[in-house]
Design a protein that fits this description.
alpha+beta, 2 domains, 7 helices, about 35% helix
Length: about 350
């Protein structure tokens, strides 16, 4: 009986050591980036996003969007045909109002790339639920390519802050991106390319003079509303508020007053914190961004609404080995020329 118990203890000890070593081996050597990158992924179509189209876009024309999104997907899959350590899922979307009234409607191809990872609890290589690695092809919209600045208009047209140019990819200027539409330090992990008709642009530069006038107009109207709410305050506090508001506008007024000696017809380049509290203009080399306004003359209003007149490719990536491989393959192989051929068709 004693001998049997000793045998059982030895067996139990052996199993315990085996399990510990197995866990250690899995964590240290049996699962790592090199193994994950050799895990074969696949392309899979998933359910399309619920459509929220421009109200003037008839449902009977949705199939035309489907045809074009499918062409975009084929180009993307050709650039990254064999996912490694990652899965590729894609779907279509129709949402948002046209940039110009009765103009071409926005729609998009969206693809996400969840990566595999080492699960030390289940001792398996598993697929992640979330991902920072995406690729979009946007038609007839700016989306995260440029930030819509709601508080200003130029000639009653919307104003946008362009992302910074950071180089050239396959002959096309490439821009930094935003994360979910907001400036973010991680924007270095996003990139975008805009495709337009040769020699034409859907936006025009906002001049320094135009911005200064828009800045003063916005703040004067805002300050009047704020002062109106202060009727019950003391005369002293109202006077202080007026002085504060005027001091805030002083740099802008000084620049405009000096317009005879200062070239204010050049493009307005601003740092983000100068959008509301203007002090000075800057340069792109110093981290500034160009302010632009919509160019409605770019859009051909005689074409059907589903025709792409403007295309933007926007991609983001995580920092794992599989995500980095997607980024590398995407930038090396995506056929921007073939996508550009879809314009006006």
């Amino acid at each position: 009986m004693i001998k049997s118990k000793n045998i059982m203890r030895k067996i139990f000890s052996f199993l315990l050591v085996f399990l510990v070593l197995h866990h250690f081996a899995f964590a240290q050597g049996s699962c790592n980036d090199d193994i994950i990158i050799n895990t074969e992924g696949h392309w899979n179509k998933v359910s399309d996003a619920s459509p929220f189209p421009d109200q003037n876009f008839p449902k009977t024309q949705f199939p035309q969007v489907t045809i074009r999104c499918d062409k975009m997907q084929k180009l993307l899959q050709s650039a990254y045909p064999k996912p490694k350590g990652i899965e590729a899922k894609w779907y279509r979307g129709i949402s948002g109002d046209a940039l110009v009234k009765d103009g071409p409607v926005p729609y998009e191809l969206e693809a996400l790339f969840p990566a595999y990872f080492c699960n030390t609890y289940t001792k398996k290589i598993e697929l992640g639920d979330e991902t920072n690695t995406w690729c979009y092809v946007w038609a007839n919209q700016f989306n995260w390519f440029a930030e819509y600045i709601k508080i200003y208009t130029i000639h009653k047209l919307p104003v946008y802050l362009l992302n910074k140019k950071v180089g050239i990819i396959n002959g096309y200027p490439v821009y930094e991106g935003y994360n979910n539409g907001k400036p973010d330090p991680a924007s270095i992990h996003n990139r975008a390319v805009i495709l337009t008709r040769p020699g034409q642009s859907p936006y025009r530069p906002v001049t320094q003079k135009q911005f200064l006038k828009a800045f003063i107009n916005y703040h004067e109207k805002r300050d009047l509303k704020l002062l109106a709410k202060m009727e019950k305050n003391t005369a002293e506090s109202i006077a202080k508020s007026k002085k504060f508001n005027e001091d805030e506008l002083m740099p802008t007024r000084i620049l405009l007053a000096d317009s005879l000696n200062t070239d204010l017809e050049q493009p307005a380049i601003l740092s983000y914190d100068n959008m509301l509290e203007f002090k000075k203009f800057t340069t792109e080399e110093m981290g500034g961004q160009q302010l632009v306004r919509l160019n409605p003359d770019y859009f051909n209003m005689t074409l059907p609404k589903y025709i792409p007149q403007l295309l933007i490719v926007y991609w983001s990536w995580g920092m794992g080995k599989a995500e980095q491989n997607f980024k590398k393959e995407m930038e090396a192989n995506f056929n921007f020329n073939a996508l550009k051929e879809m314009l006006d068709k």
